[in-house]
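Q: Can I see a sequence and its folded structure?
A: Here is a first one.
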Amino acid sequence: MRFLKFFLLAVLATWQGYSQSEDEQQIKAIYNTALTNSESYDWLNYLSNQIGGRLSGSLQAQQAVEYAKLQLDSMGLDRVWLQPVMVPKWVRGTPEFAYVETAPGITTDLPICALGGSVATPLQGIKANIVEVNGIEELKLLGPGKISGKIVFFNKPMNPTELNTFKSYSGCVDQRYAGAKEAAKFGAVGVIVRSMNLRLDDYPHTGAMDYGDTEIPNRIPAAAISTKGAEFLSATLKLSPKANFYFKQNCKVYKDVESYNVIGEIKGSEYPDEVMVVGGHLDSWDLGDGSHDDGAGCVQSMDVLRLLKETGYQPKRTIRVVLFMNEENGLRGGKKYAETAKNKNEKHVFALESDSGGFTPRGFSFDCSEANFEQVNRWKSLFEPYLVHLFVKGHSGADIGPLKDDGIVLAGLRPDSQRYFDHHHSENDTFEHVNKRELELGAAAMASLVYLFDKYGTVQTP
C-alpha cells in the first residue's frame, strides 16, 4: 500500500510537470507571436490617426464600429455581429475660452474644456467672482452665503504620494462628476474643476459629469481647467481674492442615437455554452484620439483571439471579444451586453477587460471567489518570466461589471499606471504616446490568462 501511494504521487508529479511544461510552451508561443507578428499596433494606428476621437453618437464612433467589424470579419472567426444600443449624444461645439480678471481690463487666458454632459454658458459667456474649494466637503461647509452668484473652483489635486494612481484618481474625481450638481444647490452660476492629472501641464482633461435630479433650468455649466492653469488661478486668488473669472462654452445635449457593440467569437469545442469575454471600450472622448483610453484595450482584445488562432490553440469554451460602446459617458454598451446575455440565459464564466492604457503590463486584478483567486495564484510562476505576476483582488472593469454574479470570474489587465493620467481624457491621449512593444506585451498577457482559464475552467463552489 505504501509503495502504491508513492507510485501514485510520482505519477501525479510527472503529470503536473508535463502540464506545466505544456502551459509554458503555449504561453511562450503566444508571446513570440505577439512580439513578432502582431496586428494590434496597426489596428490602433488606423483607429487613432484615420478615425480619431470616437465620442458616443458621433460619426467617428460609427466609423470605428465599421472598421472593427471589418477587421474581425477578416480574422476567420466563427461569428461576428453588431449589437444595437442606444447611446447619449453630447457635442462639444466650438473651442472653449476662459480668462481670469484681476482688475478691469487686466486678464490672463487659461486653458479649459467643457466636461462631458455639461450645459452651455449663455452666448455671451459667464463672468463672476470665483471661490476656491478643496473638494465637495469644503463646498458644503461654506454654504450658500459664500457660494451664491459665484463660480466655484474645485481645486482638490490627485494625491501624488499614492502609488496606485487609480486610487489617487478615485480620491478626487467626485468633484468632477458631481461638483456642478452640488454647487448648484448653493446658487453657484458655474463650476471650474482641476483636471485629474498628476503632472503639471497645459492640457485640460474632460470626463463625465452628472446633474442628478437637478431640474434643467437650474443646471450650471462645468469645465475642467489644466493643472498649470489651476495652480496659476489658485495663486492669483491668494493675491486678488475678488478676481473675476470668465468662461464660454456652447456644448449641447441631443436625443439618444443608435450605436453598436462590436462582437466576435470562436466557438468552444467542448463547452460551447460556457462563454468567456475579453474586451475594451470602442468609444473615447473627443479630445485627442483615444489611443490609451481605450483604443489600446480594444486592439489588445481583438489580438487575443488572433493570437490563439495563430498559435493553433483550439478553445474548449466559447471565447468572445466585445468592443463596448459608450463606457465614457453612460456605460450603455456594457449594460446592454449583460442584459442581452441574461435574457438569452447565456452562461458567462470569465470576463477580462483592458481599460487602463497600453503601458507595460504588470499583472491583473480579480473580482472573484477565494477559490478562484487561489487557482490564479497557482499560475503566477507562468507569468513571472514576463514580469506580469502582480495578482490582486479588486476592481476588474466598468464594462464587464454588469456581468457580475456569484459564479463568474472578472479580471482587469493592470499595466504600469504612473503615466496614464498624463493622457487620460485629454488632447494628450494620442497615438505617438503608445509604445508598440508595451501594447503587444499587454495583448500577450491577456491571451495567456484567457488560455489558462479556458483550459482549466473556473472553480465552481456550492
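Q: Show me another, different protein.
A: A second, unrelated one:
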Amino acid sequence: MNKSRHILVVGAGNAALCAAISAAENGARVTMLERAPAGARGGNSAFTGGCFRTVYDGVEDIKKLVPDLTEEEQSSSDFGRYDAEKYYLDLCDLSGYRADPVLIDLLVEQSLPTLLWMRDQGVRFLPAYGRQSFKVDGRNIFWGGLTIETAGGGIGLVDALFRRAEALGVEVLYDHKVERLLGDRHHVRGVMVNGEELLADAVILAAGGFHANTEWRVRYLGQGWDLAKVRGSRYNTGNVIQAAFDIGARSHGNWSGCHSVFFDAGADDFGNIAVLNQQKNYFTLGIVVNSDGQRFFDEGSDFRNYTYSKMGAAILKQPGGTGWQIFDAQSTKILPDEYRVPRAARFEANTLEALAAKLEGIDKEAFLKTVADFNSAVDEAALFNPAVKDGRRTSGLAIDKSNWARAISEPPFVAYQVTCGITLTYGGLAIDEQACVQNEEGEPMAGLYAAGELVGGLYYDRYPGGAGLTSGSVFGRIAGAIAAG
C-alpha cells in the first residue's frame, strides 16, 4: 500500500475519525492531532446519544444497517420510511431555506451509503427504541424521521471508530493544540502545534465549532449567551476556525445561530462524560413555564426532533434564564432515560399546590392559574398518540398547544428545572463539494479540508436531530478520500 501522502487530521470526534479512516483506507499515512488528553478524547461526539439521520426505504434498509435485527423486532416495529425528498425538505425548511443547497444535497445523497460504510468499519447500529419510538397498540412506532443510533451511544461510536483507525495504523497524538496553519490562502502545507511545525500533504480540520468559547458566544450569539451551560466538549473553542481565517479562509453560515436545548439546571457548567443525558427534550409531553408561571411557546408545534434545538435560546430569554417542565403521572411513565439521571433538578408532589411550593422563585399563583387554564382548554375528545402529530390540542389560550395536549391532572406531579445548554454553533468555514476549504475569493485552498461542526452553511435557526453526526461522517469520509489523492 502506498503510504507516500501524509495527512494531518485536526480533532478526534466522529468527523475527524471518519476522515482519518477514509484517508488511511485510501493509502495515506495519517496523524490525528487531538487537543484534549486521551481521557477526554472524542470531542462533542462522545457526549451525544449517537443518533444518525439517514435516508431509508423501510425495514429492508434498516436490516442493512442492523444486520442482527431479529424477526420479533421486525414484526413488533413500524419503522416507516424517510426518503431523500423529505430529508432535503427538512433541511431546507428548518434553515428557512438558507442552507447551502450543494452541501445538503450531498449530505442527503450520501447519508445511507456513508452509514453502511461505517457499519463495515465496525460501528454497530441499533434501532433507537428508547428515544425515537413509542409503543402504540403493542407496536413500536418510530417518529420524526430519526430511527438509528449507535450501540453505546456517542462513546460507543467513537470507541468503535478509534479501534478501526488504530487497526489501520492511524497515529493519534493527544494534548496537541493547533496554534496556526502553515501556508496562505492558496495552499496549506501543515500546522504549528505545541510550538512545532508539522508538515503534511494535506490538513483536514474537524475540531468542532466555538460553543465552549464564552467570549465568542457573546460576540456572535448575543447578550446572555455567556450564561449558557456547555453540553459537550470544553475543548471546542473555535481556535482552529480562527487559524483558518488567519490565512484567508472564508466564513460561512449562521454565526448568530446555534443548537441549544433545555438542559438540567443542576448540571455542571461544562459537559461531564461521567454524567450524560442532562438534556430534557421531551417537553412535548407536558408544558413548560417560566418563573412568572407562564407558558411561552407551543410545546406541541412539531415532533421534538424538529424543535428541540432552539429551546435553549428560548429559555435563555426568559426571566433568570430558567424555567420548569411540568408533567403528571400520565406523561412521566413514558419519559425516556434522560429524565432519570442522578442529580437532576427534579421536584415531585401529590398536589399542584404542593409542587408550586417547591419551585423556588416561581410566581405560584400565576403557575396554578396557568395549569388550570391549560387543563380546561384541552380537547378531551381527540385521542392521544405520541407517535404521530395527533391534533389533540387546546383552544382559546394565548398560546395554544397544537398536539399531545393532556390535562395535568393525575398525581404525582413532577417538575424539572431547566436552563440553556448549548450543543454546537452554526457558523464556520466554507467548503465545496469535495470538502475543500474555500478562501475569501471563493477559490479552493489546496491541501485544506474541513468536516463536522466547524463547517458553516448547513444549519440556520433550527436543526433536524441526528443530522450533525451524519454530516460529520459524510464530509469526513469525503475529505479523507480526496485528501489521500
